[in-house]
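Exam review. A common question shows you a sequence with its structure tokens and asks you to describe the fold in words. Practice with the pair below. Do the first one on your own.
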Amino acid sequence: MVLAHLSAKAFDFHSIKSEFDLHDAFSADVLAEARSATDRHASDRRDRTDIPFVTIDPPGSMDLDQAVHIEKLAAGYLLHYAIADVGAFVAPEGALDMEARQRGQTFYLPDGSIPLHPRVMSEGSASLLPGESRPAALWRIELDEAGEPVSWKVTRETVRSVARFDYARVQADFEQGTPHTSIAALGEFGALRAQSAIRRGAIDLTLPEQDVVKNGKSWHIALQARTDVDAWNADVSLLTGMCAARTMLDAGVGLLRTLPAASDEAVETLKYTAAILGIGWPEGASAGAVLASLPRDAPTTLALMTRATTLLRGADYAAFDGNVPERIEHSGIAAPYAHVTAPLRRLSDRFATEICLAVGAGVDIPDWVRRALPDLPAAMRRSDSTASKVDRACIDLTEAVILHERVGERFSAVVLRGAEGKRPAEVFVESPIVMGKCNGAPPEGERVTVTLTAADMETRRIEFGYESDADAQRSVASTK
């Protein structure tokens, strides 16, 4: 759904890059390493180009981390998941490695990305591009008929992708009953993994995302709802991350992504909000089960999902070597979990993958990995925080530019979250697509009329105001 656009000349995303000190360019020594990098483990690999992998990514993506092949067996499923073997190209503690540790991850802005690694490598020699033989960390995961993993291992192999797909194409193929044979079982797999998530007590927030998208010479704000294929593809990565976490925990060394359990107060607040919105909450049902049962396109779903984000606060990274940390679980996934599936775009994945590869091969974990482990949580916290702020700044700027001449106009909105103490309410305006703060006391979960009271392009601030019928009548009476 696209409901707002303006000339690209009205936007200046360069100022956001400057504000957050993001630089596309790399130093000469880093570029030299990336250009000359070759597979340091070429002699250790088996050739698995016989497996017809495919990739599923956003349109136009060139930094392809993952390729998938899944088949249904007589009793279960066999998943092969190839991950770009970035560790084979990056010299430990060299100039490229040190630069990646400073950056932490790839940052995405509407007018382009600020990559973690030079594009000659991340979009070239290390990317799982179709038709190219590439070094990979290949996960082989066997699952039973219920979609639960029964065995897994990761090894260094050579793979080849036979096709590059985007989410919309794969979704259309499934809807037409013509999915590629390499992923024909993906829908069944996804459904089973969704049931597994509910059994574990996982919480999946399928909030649509605001995106700033370029269309020709204009920019627009789009609301991107998550498709079935998005969820299924995410399930492949989540499963792999769960297997990686268990591998590292068994070895006593690793890097986990953690999230504390939601407080009883947060769950009770969510139940109260559900009651206000008229959403049933069966006795004994988990928050994840209730959220998973909601219709995707209902305004009340968006309101409850937004409120449910309070259940998933406090995400962190936990590095360990010898002593397993007290908190090992990611409560949103309801299991231990680790990032291993996006090493071209996220620093932590390369190190966690190296640990899993060493464990799988029965060899010592490299000393350079162990030396880096204590510093990785802080590096990832820093880059995650910056990425979140950059995303928000780009959306805020786009909203301010689109709306700056419409201050004083009234808009139809859904109240995503009511006011609490000093925190104002949050509303969702459908035309143009905007999520913003709202002063007053609009009733949570209801459709109301709000007035745009501020749209400042310099500060990127959007603000609405709400008056109830009673407030409006009192205001009119006071002027007489």
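Now try the second one, then compare your answer with the model answer below.
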Amino acid sequence: MTRLSDDIPTRTTRLDRFFSVSARGSTIGREVRGGVTTFVAMSYIVLLNPLILGASADITGARLTVEQVTTATALAAGVMTVLMGVVGNAPLALAAGLGVNGVVAFQLAPTMTWAQAFGLVVLEGLCIVVLAASGVRERIINAIPAPLKTAITIGIGLYIALVGLVSAGFVTRTPDAAGSTVPVRMGLDGHLVGWPIAVFCLGLLLMIVLLARGVPGAVLIGIAAATVLAVVVNAVFDVPGWGLVTPDLPGSVVAAPDFGLFGEVDLFGGFTSAGAITATVFLFTLVLSGFFDAMGTITSVSDEAGLTRDGKVPGMGRILLVDGFGAVAGGVTGSSPNTVFLESAAGVGEGARTGLASVVTGAMLAATLLFTPLAAVVPAQAAAPALVVIGGLMMAQCRRIPWDDADYTIPVFLTAAVIPFTYSITNGIGAGLVSYVVIKTCKGQWRSVGWLMTVIALLFVLYFGVEGFTAVLR
């Protein structure tokens, strides 16, 4: 009888060989556990994406329905994550990218129809696919110095932890009021109050203890235990303040999917509705964000999984190609650009090392097409501890930074700091690369930087100033 454990059953040898499970020092049990953990950590996107895209109307006043966007989100994420597992053989899950979905909802949609906005998303994906297929994207990744790549991992670790703390309500934004001295604070008023915060803290402490004791499945156990506690507490005390997901047992397990957005795409209509210059700026923003957000996530998660060799990720070309098609899929399905998710690090923390974990995650994401009510059981306060713990573990990469090298000290700091402070991986990478190129150029060492890095730095200067340039053109 096959048993789910850290021992690989004989009957799974073909699966083992296909995904190189043993070769990467993993087991079938760890891959399955890691895939489940990644799903639990990122399943919130199925609920959050409809809220973001549904919060805006297009130029005609049309709004997307929750049922349509939920179906589109689960469909694209499930298919592309399985594809990443089979083609890229990496423990990386894809879903509608946070931040870029806001660009689609609040910048693109008000200037064009939804079909035209999703058409620009498809064009973005095709641009990234061309860059990946031609090898340009991989060359750019390989051109970035190792210390800056490590800084990306550190910055993403801080970013993941901050996202977890904010999602749980442990950290909140200080209201814009006179006399405010800090942008964020602990809890709602500087204090930790209420059962939701208690669930988060207990879940976090449990996870820390289990990890310290080397318990297999520590992250998943912590999420499950915190979810059970949340359900019980909410049932007994009817607690408010959970946020997007209230931990109630669903009255219905199955819900019918709505594929109304699938294929509703107008590739070039946006250039007419919004104007050629504005649409081009939108497309440039989407491409640059999708390009470098995914690059940073792929590099850092792969490094955390121990998959990098001499600073390079094996099979990077295939991984980048799948990521590019993820954006295309996001446009075709109507879910906004899909990209590699930071929460993949949660699965890696549970031992995931191969694409088998992604297949598991993808299958579970696809299953939410029918079982969406079950995805609404896990509150942010139960899943957020995983992000905080994994973010903390990623900080261990600090030991690899050559802090005594002045050429890297500030660029590394800017990369690691700007990512969490601006909630953008792209901004952090840009700040680090621009400062690094400026330092090298001012020291007369621009030849050591190379033309490719110089071009990238100039593109980031344009990216940072694009709104100003657009305002001048207007």
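Model answer, second protein: Residues 41 and 414 are 28 Å apart (CA to CA). The chain has 22 helices and four strands. Full marks require stating both points clearly.
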